[in-house]
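Ticket #4471: complex job returned nothing on first submit. Input attached below:
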Amino acid sequence: DAKTTQPNSMESNEEEPVHLPCNHSTISGTDYIHWYRQLPSQGPEYVIHGLTSNVNNRMASLAIAEDRKSSTLILHRATLRDAAVYYCILRDWGSARQLTFGSGTQLTVLP
Amino acid sequence: DTGVSQNPRHKITKRGQNVTFRCDPISEHNRLYWYRQTLGQGPEFLTYFQNEAQLEKSRLLSDRFSAERPKGSFSTLEIQRTEQGDSAMYLCASSLDSDLAKNIQYFGAGTRLSVL
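Support reply: We reran it on our side without changes. The output follows.
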């Protein structure tokens, strides 16, 4: 799987938007961009995924650069419950193999 | 169905003892994955099953580790002759083949192993 690069940590104020960046300059044409997050003392949970177009769901939005070499996970209004480690992962289309996690970004939400 | 269930949540053992963890995946999920996570790191892949067949094993899975998934339902992960370096969180996840376009993996809360 192609490698992703994320900042180690970020801070945000509660109820403000958060933009979590991810670089994936070696992404291939069939790689989907997946985001998972891991809340304290829990297993990771799926957040969102996309291929080329920007995507929205109830949890977040995913903005994908035109050249697909970077993407940004957007939390529109951070809450204290959003404090977690966020992982950006590339997945080949149709792959049912394991997820390859990096170190992720530790998001701290300040009240 | 409330999701992937792992038992026990915590296990403390002495070095050299054997331990076994259990994972109950989401009903009808045919794929099951085991990961290990140490403090400050992302989860690392250990092994995965499609139904009862073990399809892939990581180099992290030494001879002391064995995983089974009889009848393609629950799975067990056994560690023999535990070492202090085995101390970690062991995570289980499951997914459904019919949703391959997404292949979302659903994780349990993990079993935290402490080897004294």
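DSSP finds no helices and nine strands in chain A. Closing as resolved unless it happens again.
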